[in-house]
Amino acid sequence: MNNKDSELLVVTDNQKGMRLDQLLQGHFNHYSRTYFQKLIHSGKVLVNGEPAKKRTLLELDDEVEVAFTLVEDTSLVPEKIPLEILFEDEAIIVLNKPAPMVVHPGAANTSHTLVNALLYHLKELPGSESLRPGIVHRLDKETTGVIVVAKTEGAQANLIAQFAARTVQKEYLAICIGKPQQSLIRARIGRNPKRRQMMSVVKEGGKPAETSLEILEYTPHLSYVRLFPKTGRTHQIRVHLKSINHPVLGDSVYGKASINEKYRAARQMLHAHTLTLCHPSNNEIMQFCAPIAEDMKKCLHANNLISL
To answer: Which site in 14, 77, 130, 268 is 20 to 30 Å from 117, CA atoms measured?
Structure first.
């Protein structure tokens, strides 16, 4: 199957015995189990290279490959949604994604996504048979900031390769609880064995992950930090900050509910600030910067983390 819209999973010890559709919905929690059942039925999910049934019980080290494609009852509909465009040419478009916008449609989010907005603006994107046309990386629903989207198949393949090779440089800004003492967090990240829709730091298994950080300003209770993720694991910054007991303010999954409520943080205060990459057409090194959202700016001002 191996294509840019497929992903490969290897069944771990705590996943063995799970049904195939259950495993997929737990791992890719932006999609519903119904969506994966339709993918399985249409032969878009392979177990050890062979088509499988939704009730297939998985064994340790089974290889599960899933192709994210449109199925019955899912479609990509252009929607007239405003976009904050930072840069655009014939190959790429760079945007400042707002919260709480989801990047691409899934069975749980069939409309009002960044892809729906882009289809209205651009009319078409490469890989129209996929639910993720033009997408080369993602930001969480509540994370704001810079995201690059490919406008051609060549640009998409080039950018995917850059992200895979870790040559794309990413800088994030966040408000976190307390004052971190570490300048480098190096800890493996894998699925939380008890809550499959969450990620966590794990001693064994998972994937290596590394995040460096710099404190820009702090008070006795909060810090304004700059973060540089070397790897791009799911929820990496949020999980790494939680692992050192300094979660992102407003994070409803990995944060502290009482403190989020105290500071009236309605969403996670995490922003993808800059992205530096090699332009897929001319190899020019380009850096894109997205201004922080107003709600995060107000939170910084209200807590004396930046001056007016």
So the answer is: 268
Percent of the chain with pLDDT over 90: 63
With a threshold of 0.90, does the pTM exceed it? no
From 33, 67, 101, give the residue that closes a domain: 67
CA distances from 266 to 104, 261, 273 (A): 22, 8, 20
Q: How confident is the model at residue 4 (pLDDT cuts 50, 70, 90)?
A: very low
Instruction: From 207, 214, 202, 125, select the one nearest 174 (Cα to Cα).
Output: 214
Rounded to whole angstroms, the Cα distance separating 167 from 136 reads 14
**How many helices (H) does the chain have, and how many strands (E)?**
7, 15
CATH of the domain at 238: 3.30.2350.10
User: How confident is the prediction for the chain on average, in pLDDT?
Assistant: 89
Look at residues 16, 39, 67 and tell me which one is the last residue of a structural domain: 67
Which CATH number covers residue 13?
A: 3.10.290.10
Give SS3 for 156: helix
When mean pLDDT is compared across 80-84, 195-199, 276-280, the lowest value belongs to: 195-199
Structural domain includes residue 24: yes
What region, left, alpha or beta, does residue 129 occupy, with left being phi > 0 and alpha being psi -120 to 50 degrees?
alpha
Q: Which of 73, 140, 251, 295 is catalytic?
A: 140
Number of domains in the chain: 2
Active site residue 89: no
Its domain, for residue 267, covers 170-271+298-302
What's the CA gap between 261 and 257, in Å, rounded?
6
N-to-C CA span, the chain: 54
